[in-house]
Task: structure prediction
Amino acid sequence: MCQHLYIVPTSPVLIVLVCTFLHRLLYQLCSLYSFRIQCVPVSIRKVKRYGNTGIIAGEDPNTYFKILVEFVIFQPSAGSQVTARVERISTSHIGLLVHDWFNASVHRSKTEPLHSQVAVGDTVLVEITKTNVARRMISLESKLISIL
Result:
């Protein structure tokens, strides 16, 4: 879990539908890496708005609301172990899917003893060695620990 405070601008047109607007805006943050909170929000657990009124700043027509959001997060780090499903096997690497959502790969040089025993659809235990973020999408480099 991760809690984070946001100040969200809302157009006067959407002021009546502020709850719907906030949820729609927050769900757009899910599944993409957030540099601000250094993790991937997977889903929203709770949204709390501070007060019933917003703030109007200067000449800006928007109303700003302070909200506290509690996210369920995925925050992989080097050395952590996760289970994954084998999606693709090539001569150079094994392509994996972690939690049916995140891409991971195991390079052949790191899995030599177990590489020939792995089949598409197998569930495996891997240790994360490196995380990469490109265009707010996260991918994991890992090494194979065992076949489950």
In short: The beta strands are 2-10, 40-49, 55-56, 63-74, 81-89, 93-98, 102-107, 123-134, 137-147. The longest strand covers residues 63-74. The chain has two domains: 2-74, 81-147. Residues 18-27 form the longest helix (10 residues).
